[in-house]
Amino acid sequence: MPERIHARVEACYQQAETFFKRPFTRPEVSFKLRGQKAGVAHLTENKLRFNPQLYRENQEDFLKQTVAHEVAHLIAHQLFGPDIQAHGEEWQLIMRGVYELPPNRCHTYEVQRRRVNRFIYRCSCPQGEFPFSSQRHTLVAKGRRYYCRRCKATLHFTGEQRLV
After folding, report:
1. Does an H or E element contain 139, and which?
2. Which entry of 28, 70, 100, 129 is annotated as an active-site residue?
3. Please, where in the chain does CATH 3.30.2010.10 lie?
4. Rg of the chain (C-alpha set)
5. What's the CA gap between 96 and 51, in Å, rounded?
6. What number of CA atoms fall less than 13 Å from residue 88's CA on the CB side?
7. Which carries the bigger pLDDT value, residue 135 or residue 163?
8. Where's the SprT-like domain (predicted)?
9. Other CB atoms closer than 10 Å to residue 159's CB: what's the count?
10. What whole-number distance in Å separates Cα of residue 3 and Cα of residue 27?
11. Nearest-angstrom CA–CA distance, 125 and 127
12. Short-list 58, 63, 6, 60, CA closest to 36
């Protein structure tokens, strides 16, 4: 997997160098991205991060569109500086002019949402049920208090947990 992405990153840089007739500094490439994002460009660090799960599930489009999308961010930053909009006209120029790709802001890949545990808290209102994240539940265990906005009562853990 990393070989094909590295090769595509290099190809994108070579295309940009031919188009703009100047060299560009190559980025560090990482595959430590999870969740809904397919890729992220860290402009000031000259770093690209890619989501290996979304790559495995969408290889051809990922290589063609996502890699070029993220490289275009770094190229735009090196050419035009830090004050441009992320998906502004400079980035769009690179997507259309250099890579001949549509400047789509977001991918349309199917993303599996991870089920998470929620801790159920209640107040004295009849319909007052509050699902807390594990992080918020831990804060309560350390002494933090949360209150209902309607009845102003302290929220208390019911002992119930749910996967959502």
Report:
1. helix 134-141
2. 70
3. 2-98
4. 23
5. 24
6. 11
7. 135
8. 7-158
9. 7
10. 15
11. 6
12. 58
Active site residue 70: yes
Going by C-alpha positions, the residue among 79, 81, 76 that lies closest to residue 103 is 76
4-52 per-position pLDDT tens digit: 999 999 999 999 999 999 999 999 999 999 889 999 999 999 999 999 9
105, amino acid identity: R
For residue 61, the number of C-alpha atoms closer than 13 Å in the C-beta half-sphere is 11
Per the document, the length of the chain is 164
Token pair 């199917």 is at which residue? 110
Pull the structure tokens for residue 158: 């019911």
Locate tokens 């804060």: which residue? 139
